[in-house]
Design brief:
About 40% of the residues lie in helices and about 20% in strands. With about 120 residues, the protein is an alpha/beta fold. It has one domain: 3-Layer(aba) Sandwich (Rossmann fold). α1 links the parallel β1 and β2. α2 packs parallel to α3.
C-alpha cells in the first residue's frame, strides 16, 4: 500500500517533469524523486532509498526503458508509463489513451490513484 505522502521515482529525461506537473504532484502530497535517467534510477532502487512507486517516461530509448522496467519488476515496485504531453493523433487514428504527466490536477490524481492500485 502506498503511504499518504508517496515517494515517487520519476524515470526519464530531465525535461520529462514539467514545473506545472511537479507543483501539482507536490500539492497532492507526493515526495518527488527525480526525474532521473534510467541508470541513476536503477542505482537509487538498489540503494536503501525508500520508494513507493515509479513513473516511467514512455518516450525513453528502448534499452534504457527495458533496464528500468526490469529493475522495477525485480523489486516488485508499482510503476506506470506516461508521456509529458498528449501526442497529436493522426487523422483517423484513435487518440492517445495513456497517462499524461503534464495535464493538470485530474490527470495527476489519476496517476497517483493508479500507482496506489498497483501497490495493493
Amino acid at each position: 500500500m502506498i503511504r499518504s505522502e508517496p515517494r515517487v521515482l520519476i524515470i526519464g529525461q530531465p525535461d520529462f517533469l514539467s514545473p506545472e506537473a511537479e507543483r501539482e504532484l507536490a500539492r497532492q502530497g507526493t515526495v518527488i524523486l527525480g526525474p532521473h535517467r534510467a541508470d541513476r534510477a536503477i542505482s537509487l532502487l538498489q540503494s536503501s532509498l525508500k520508494v513507493d512507486g515509479a513513473i516511467i517516461e514512455l518516450d525513453m530509448e528502448e534499452e534504457a526503458f527495458s533496464r528500468a522496467v526490469d529493475a522495477l519488476e525485480k523489486q516488485g515496485m508499482p510503476f506506470l508509463f506516461a508521456v509529458s504531453c498528449r501526442p497529436q493523433a493522426e487523422e483517423g487514428a484513435r487518440p492517445y489513451g495513456g497517462y499524461v504527466l503534464g495535464e493538470g490536477e485530474a490527470e495527476i490524481a489519476a496517476i497517483l490513484e493508479a500507482l496506489s492500485r498497483e501497490a495493493e
